[in-house]
Fold this protein.
Amino acid sequence: MKLIGRRSVASALRWVLGFVNIFVTVGVIATGLLLLTTLIVPDFAVGFMNGLAESDSGLRPLLLNERASFLAAFIASLSTWWILNRLRRMFLAVDQGDAFERANVGRLQGIGVGLIGIEISAAVLARFVPRGIIDGLEYEIDLGAWLSILIVFMLAEVFRQGARMRDEQQMTV
């Protein structure tokens, strides 16, 4: 099986990412609606949190850490959606035989920003998620994850130089 072009590994991965993207989109919409609900109807959000913690605390004010948990969950799901869409567009460019197009530089930078969003939201969730919902959730700085983010930004610069060299090559006769 070939790696790029029609009916290739890159093409298959693009379709798999598209399928996964459907579920991630549903998750983004659900967490966004949940976050919006915390602002409009805090009693529903309190009931939701009580249901997750399997407690019956009754009506109480929505705590700041619970609001932060909703926001972090939304940012994590939105960042995942953002990354998947950028990856799908990059695989499409690779399928078309143009990996070093200038748009891929921005896509790689967008993937790096999305990865930063996921790491920050994981730290916020580990810090602020109410006890009883997820027990033992701790965040430790993952050096591998942060180095991967650095590598993605370095790859963006490599793609920028590759696109510049490709443009120069196309201008020469």
About this structure: Helices lie at 9-40, 42-52, 64-95, 102-128, 143-171. The CA atoms of residues 34 and 41 lie 10 Å apart.
